[in-house]
């Protein structure tokens, strides 16, 4: 093999010489076939991208999947200004204004139960996600989170 000698010098390979070829990170083969959203680690704005179950996530690329949510509906909700707001509240802002979209920050994004989203809202979020329309996704997210309703109560 081309890089066998270099790989065998790694600490993990020395600890387990018969498995010198293994990756440092654990590989979960089930993830390949799952529909999932990829989110780059460092970006100005949250930008989930759909994988139909054909690839495996690697370094600096976080993934989100759900057995309860339609992946594109979730993608629309995450790409909204509400999804961005959660990350800005919890996440780290780096030089240049870029954010880290790491797992610990993505886990803190609160989403409603999927069954509480109407079919019309779901269809609009899918449309917004496919067209990369953040403004539409935000309008639907504001409605789902009932933010406009709460704002009216405060005034």
Structural description of this entry:
By secondary structure, this protein is mainly alpha-helical. The chain has 2 domains: about 1-25, no CATH class; about 35-155, no CATH class. It contains 9 helices and 5 strands. The strands form 2 sheets. A 3-stranded antiparallel sheet has the order 3-1-4, covered by helices on one side. Strands 2-5 form a two-stranded antiparallel ribbon. Helix 4 crosses helix 7 and helix 7 (about 120-130) runs antiparallel to helix 8 (about 135-145). The longest helix is centred in the C-terminal third of the chain and has 13 residues, at about 120-130. It is elongated and about 65 Å long. The chain starts with a helix and ends with a helix. About 25% of the residues are buried. The model has no long low-confidence stretch (mean pLDDT about 90).
How is the topology of this model organized?
Blueprint (H helix, E strand, L loop, with lengths): L3 H5 L2 H5 L14 H4 L2 E5 L1 E2 L5 E3 L9 E4 L6 H9 L1 H10 L8 E2 L2 H4 L12 H13 L2 H11 L2 H8 L1
Antiparallel strand pairs: 1-3, 1-4, 2-5
Helix pairs in contact: 4-7, 7-8
Outline:
It contains 9 helices and 5 strands. With 155 residues, it is mainly alpha-helical.
**Share of residues in strands:** 5-15%
Give the overall silhouette.
elongated
Write down the overall mean pLDDT.
89
Count of domain modules: 2
How many angstroms does the end-to-end distance come to?
69 Å
């Amino acid at each position: 093999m081309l890089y066998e000698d270099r790989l065998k010098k790694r600490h993990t390979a020395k600890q387990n010489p018969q498995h010198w070829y293994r990756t440092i990170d654990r590989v979960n083969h089930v993830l390949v076939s799952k529909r999932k959203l990829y989110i780059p680690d460092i970006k100005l704005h949250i930008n989930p991208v759909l994988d139909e179950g054909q690839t495996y996530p690697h370094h600096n690329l976080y993934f989100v999947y759900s057995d309860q949510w339609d992946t594109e509906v979730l993608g629309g909700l995450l790409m909204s200004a509400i999804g961005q707001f959660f990350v800005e509240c919890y996440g780290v802002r780096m030089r240049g204004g870029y954010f880290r979209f790491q797992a610990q920050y993505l886990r803190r994004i609160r989403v409603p139960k999927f069954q509480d989203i109407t079919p019309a809202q779901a269809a609009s979020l899918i449309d917004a996600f496919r067209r990369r329309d953040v403004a539409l996704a935000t309008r639907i997210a504001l409605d789902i989170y009932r933010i406009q309703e709460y704002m009216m109560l405060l005034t």
